[in-house]
Design a protein that fits this description.
Blueprint lengths: L9 H20 L6 H12 L5 H8 L3 H13 L3 E5 L7 E5 L1 H23 L3 H21 L3
Antiparallel strand pairs: 1-2
Helix pairs in contact: 1-5, 2-3, 2-5, 3-4
């Protein structure tokens, strides 16, 4: 098999873009006192209050142990509360506290500025095309991934 130069490897370009996005979001979220994974968890919780830790881990694309660490840190800061589910006592429902909602609003405004700046770099047609192309990448990679 022939080697492929790094410049021709699409995965390298996707990784660079992801790394730049994460580094920028990390920098803008720092004044809000959140990490990118904590922000991601709060964002999902704002949209889906009561979601379980397992569901939250899936939604944020992290492992359950990683999510448990994120939730522990958020709970210690008083940003979330975890209460037993009404019917399933072994399941904890997670929701934002009032302070969590305020921190989330600040952090989200910061993250949205990054997303808007990124979107503004492209025309509407380019954004749609990029979204479609990245979706095709995901579809292909999921199809060829060994079980």
């Amino acid at each position: 098999m022939t080697s492929m130069p790094a410049a021709e490897r699409l995965g390298s370009h996707i990784k660079r873009a992801e790394k730049a996005l994460n580094a920028t979001k990390h920098a803008v979220l720092k004044p809000a006192g959140l990490t990118v994974p904590q922000y991601a968890a709060l964002l999902v919780l704002a949209e889906r209050p009561g979601i379980s830790a397992a569901g939250l881990a899936r939604a944020c694309a992290v492992t359950p142990p990683t999510m448990n660490t994120v939730l522990k840190n958020l709970q210690e800061r008083g940003l979330i509360e975890r209460t037993p589910h009404q019917w399933h006592r072994n399941v904890l429902e997670t929701s934002l506290t009032e302070e969590g909602k305020a921190v989330m609003a600040d952090a989200d405004a910061r993250a949205v500025r990054v997303e808007r700046a990124l979107a503004a770099e492209f025309t509407a047609e380019e954004r749609e095309s990029l979204t479609d192309l990245l979706g095709r990448c995901v579809d292909l990679l999921e199809a060829v991934r060994p079980d």
